[in-house]
Amino acid sequence: MILLGNGRTGANVADVLRIDSDTVRDYSKRAKKTGREGLLRMSYVGSVALLDAGRLAELDLNLHSFLYLMAEVVARFVGQRWGVQYTWSGMTAVLHRFGYVYKKAKLEAGKQPEPEIQEAFVEKYENIKKHQGGAYKSQPGIRDLGKHWFFDDVYLRQMESRLRNACPEVPFR
């Protein structure tokens, strides 16, 4: 506003500030209409939530039950479950409101575990496949085509994380 007050044109101010000239024009109009207080007031009111409180609570419960590694996978789940489409950035905002943060998974190199630990891991893995395999078919990322299951890459990383939690002593890859 000071530059405009000193006689510079809107295009010149936009060039100096490296912003769009329409933005300079909008600020100038708002300053003339509402004064300095109008420029300093933030009147942004966000958009209406796409999910109601009940669905948000159900989503929060689901997030506590399943590990999702990326916001876009959560957005895909919401789309499949309730038919509500979120972008990855929109779902990231929802997750932040719940208090979730992104933490990149790290693989740590390690020694080969003892044979007993490896056998215990295989036993736990077989138990998961035997008793919980049906529950996994209904999850996003799995397609059941008769006797063949097809998993997307994100789901495989989630399974790896679950197995890592079941038997943390076993290094993966």
Description of the molecule:
The protein is mainly alpha-helical and 173 residues long. The protein is 61% helix and 5% strand. It is built from eight helices and two strands; from the N terminus they run αααααααββα. Strands 1-2 form a two-stranded antiparallel ribbon. Helix 2 (10-17) packs across helix 3 and helix 5 packs across helix 6 (88-98). 9% of the residues are buried. The model is unreliable at 142-148 (pLDDT under 50).
List unreliable stretches of 5+ residues: 142-148
User: Whole-number average pLDDT?
Assistant: 76
In whole angstroms, how far apart are the ends?
59 Å
Tally of individual helices = 8
Q: What is the strand tally?
A: 2
Main sheet strand line-up:
1-2
The 3D shape can be described as: elongated
Report the C-alpha radius of gyration, rounded.
Answer: 26 Å
Structural class, by secondary structure, is: mainly alpha
What fraction of the residues are assigned to beta strands by DSSP? Answer: under 5%
